[in-house]
Amino acid sequence: MVAINKLLDKTKGDRWIWLIIILLSLISILVVYSSTSTLAFKRGVGVEKLLLTKHVIFVLIGIAMIYIAHLLDYRYYAGISKVLMVITIPLLVYTLIFGANVNDASRWVKIPLIGLTFQTSDLAKLALITFLARMLTRKQENIKDVKEAFIPIMGSVCVVFVLIAWANMSTALMLFGVSILLLIIGRISIKQIMMVCAGGFVLLLFVAFLGPRREVYKSRIETYMHPERQNSDKTFQSDHSKIALASGGVFGKGPGNSIEKNFLPHPYSDFVFAMIIEEYGTIGGIIVMSLYLVLLYRCIKIVTRAPKAFGALLAAGLSFSLTIQAFANMAVAVGLGPVTGVPLPLVSMGGTSLLFTSIAFGIILSVSKDVEENNSKKVIVGEIPAMA
């Protein structure tokens, strides 16, 4: 008990965000435990073994990484971002050429020695957002200058966007959207932002019509826009997701009672929100959605109170990335968007993607910790004259 109290004393940052992290982690364990029963059966192992030897361990490691990341002063991430960008761009190129091919897309790289695979786009998201926050902060004095600020900043965005979009359009588009929001907050002129959007649209068309996955993108859009014209194989995932939503009702079937987990290909990752509604009902879905909305609200408060521009931009970029990804996953599950492979942050079973998400949460808490310390210093300074 004493050790726990000491640990809590060292835990800083927004308490609401810590609570959201714990709640999402618990929801993740419950839903993944239920939705992996079919996967465990196919692999010939017990669901407890599959869950306890992978997901729970990753959840615990993720929470540990959040704790470690939040202890590090967020200013150090400015220097780390340069190293990450130097690593990320060659790694994205390597992934496109030599990466593991899954569903006609090279997104995965195997980590030597330990045998784990991870999506390089997860690292790229973290690298680009932290690097953009650093660049926008350093270029504030001449932020309107095209040569000094706009071109260096947009060069990094465009390179990362194209390299990710070549194999993973949905992630690239979300990252591009987050980048635009950061440019707006970072005081880039509206004219330049419009140029960015126009350039992004051209790059999007280039990748969509000339990229190796052009047929996949075309098929997904056609399936979403005209499901009545498609055969059942193309609408299989979205159909069973809708069945899960409809059968869940208001209060759901109860934990472990999902039927659609036996039909959906990825009920523990891409369609985990459909599993939540089937087992916990509309009430459960609203609770999960509310947690992400509260997360965004608390992060916005951190942004408005951050004493330094870098901290504000860093918290804004990472929080936008997490919440946009969350609502993109939920939109796919309820049929508001074409099927993508975007996981639900901190909830989907994801291994290394869960760890990168945890680092993002830790950095946000590091900024929040600095805000708390800055506010406490103001209070102490304000009390000195009164005491005298």
Automatic annotation (TrEMBL):
The chain crosses the membrane at residues 16-35, 55-72, 84-102, 114-137, 149-166, 193-211, 271-297, 309-334, 346-368. Keywords: Cell shape, Glycosyltransferase, Membrane, Peptidoglycan synthesis, Transferase, Transmembrane, Transmembrane helix. Its EC number is 2.4.99.28. It is a multi-pass membrane protein. It comes from the Bacteria. It is found in: Membrane. InterPro entries: FtsW/RodA (IPR001182). It catalyses: [GlcNAc-(1->4)-Mur2Ac(oyl-L-Ala-gamma-D-Glu-L-Lys-D-Ala-D-Ala)](n)-di-trans,octa-cis-undecaprenyl diphosphate + beta-D-GlcNAc-(1->4)-Mur2Ac(oyl-L-Ala-gamma-D-Glu-L-Lys-D-Ala-D-Ala)-di-trans,octa-cis-undecaprenyl diphosphate = [GlcNAc-(1->4)-Mur2Ac(oyl-L-Ala-gamma-D-Glu-L-Lys-D-Ala-D-Ala)](n+1)-di-trans,octa-cis-undecaprenyl diphosphate + di-trans,octa-cis-undecaprenyl diphosphate + H(+). Belongs to the SEDS family. FtsW subfamily. PANTHER family: CELL CYCLE PROTEIN, PEPTIDOGLYCAN GLYCOSYLTRANSFERASE FTSW-RELATED. This is Probable peptidoglycan glycosyltransferase FtsW.
